[in-house]
Amino acid sequence: MKVFETQLPGVGRRYQISFPDGGVFTIVVHNDGKRSAFWRDEPDADGEELFTTNERDAEKIAEIFEGVFFDPVSDDLDDALSGARIKWVAIPDDSPVVGRTIGDVGIRTQTGVSVLAVERGGQTIANPTPDTQLLTDDVLVVVGDDDAHQALEELLSKPK
């Protein structure tokens, strides 16, 4: 695999990844933070735009490729995790939990979900403590059943 980087004046940077078995994957990082992804089967062929995304979503895609969110489990745990779902939930600007800590809010006792991580400004706080303060634009990575997720949504959106 070869990676080529090219400055695109007035646009941003282009990264082209050529694979030994054929195909070229291109990512254009625009000056405004937008990312565009293209694929072409042959080096000289026209590229097909696969998607365009913002900076935050591009970071999420990169984390997935990096394996941050993947933890293989054996099949014998399927019954133990039955009904459990992991979700990424953004804290609304007007949420009553903004400025309070996880412990003060009582997220687990109030809703039944467990907070696995807090994503904040491109950083991930893994295994946050009850003293972790919740801020606007934080994204909570939580695990629980459907009822617990619904209770969390209600807690986050209650009027102040």
TrEMBL record:
It holds the Pfam family TrkA_C. PANTHER family: K(+)_H(+) ANTIPORTER SUBUNIT KHTT. SUPFAM superfamilies: TrkA C-terminal domain-like. Residues 74-158 form the RCK C-terminal domain. It comes from the Archaea. This is Cation:proton antiporter regulatory subunit.
